[in-house]
Amino acid sequence: MLGLIISLIVIGLIAGAVARLVVPGKQNISIPMTILLGIIGSFVGGFIGYLIFHKDASDGFFQPAGIVGSIIGAIIVLVIYLRVSGRRSVSR
């Protein structure tokens, strides 16, 4: 159980960081929020993968396809978050 939690945090950090690097612009998000972004992205990516391929986590959680799905899910979540929060820019 502890290993699952630690791997969820590490994969969340990696997926969230890659999503923040891919999405253009500056995001004012802390490291814990980046981890949360990656964890939520993992669930979104897993759900989308299940809808497309009809496969679940019966083969294990730590797979390269799962990491890619986590990154894609984190990108989707970050874009939605930035649209909903309304990126404010200062113009003069």
Gist?
By secondary structure, the protein is an all-alpha fold. The protein has three helices and no strands.
Would you give an account of this structure?
It is a single chain. The chain is mainly alpha-helical and 92 residues long. It has a domain of 54 residues. It is built from 3 helices and no strands. Helix 1 packs across helix 2, helix 1 crosses helix 3 and helix 2 crosses helix 3. The longest helix has 23 residues. The radius of gyration is 14 Å and the shape is globular. The termini are far apart. The mean pLDDT is 81.
Alpha carbon gap, first and last residue:
52 Å
What spatial form do the alpha-carbon principal axes imply? globular
Question: What's the tally of helices?
Answer: 3
| Helix and strand element order | HHH
Poorly predicted sequence stretches spanning 5 or more consecutive residues: none
Described by strand count, sense and barrel closure, the largest sheet is: none
Mean pLDDT: 81
Notable traits:
72% helix; 92 residues; globular; mainly alpha
Ordered list of secondary-structure elements with their pairings:
Elements: H1 2-22, H2 31-53, H3 64-85
Helix pairs in contact: 1-2, 1-3, 2-3
